[in-house]
Specification:
The protein is an alpha+beta fold. The chain has one domain (about 5-130): Roll (Thiol Ester Dehydrase, Chain A), CATH 3.10.129. Helix content is about 25%, strand content about 35%. The chain has three helices and six strands; from the N terminus they run βααβββββα. Strands 1, 2, 3, 4, 5 and 6 form a six-stranded antiparallel β-sheet that branches. Strand 5 (about 100-115) and strand 6 (about 120) form a beta hairpin. The mean pLDDT is about 95. This is Thioesterase. Pfam families: 4HBT_2. GO terms for molecular function: fatty acyl-CoA hydrolase activity.
Length: about 140
């Protein structure tokens, strides 16, 4: 099973300059994470049942190549780091153009929030272990 998702950019993703707006990159990265979590059995309903939610502390995007309307892009996520108990993690999403060139990277630092206590918490062991199945991030040469 691959964790890569292919999308086609939409009109709503574009800015007045005719290329993908900065926040659309973050939206595609977030969608890839949500799909990945759901594939692991942690969809929105399961998080609601557990009273647990992912939160971000930092999100950084590096823009490398322009993306236009109607373009096919491929988004993946790789694990850059994770605490042994899964309480904190860093994921690097790479957004590729159809020809394989890297258009952008979106790096996120996150953790888990206990939705009742409004405090950081440790996720269920199965969820923490699932992070270990992610491919590990290796910086790509420019």
């Amino acid at each position: 099973m691959t964790d890569t998702i292919i999308y086609r950019t939409r009109w709503a993703d574009m800015d007045p300059n005719g290329h993908m707006r900065h926040s659309a990159y973050a939206d595609y990265a977030a969608d890839q994470r949500v799909v990945l979590l759901a594939n692991w059995g942690y969809g929105v309903a399961e998080f609601a049942r557990l009273r647990l939610g992912p939160i971000l502390f930092r999100e950084e995007t590096k823009f490398l190549k322009e993306v236009s309307i109607g373009e096919e892009i491929r988004v993946d996520g790789q694990l850059a780091s994770a605490a042994p108990d899964g309480s904190r993690w860093t994921i690097v999403h790479t957004i590729y153009k159809a020809d394989g060139r890297v258009a952008a990277t979106v790096t996120v630092d996150g953790a888990w929030l206990d939705l009742d206590r409004r405090k950081l918490t440790v996720p269920p062991a199965e969820l923490a272990a699932a992070f270990g199945t992610m491919p590990l991030y290796e910086a790509q040469p420019r």
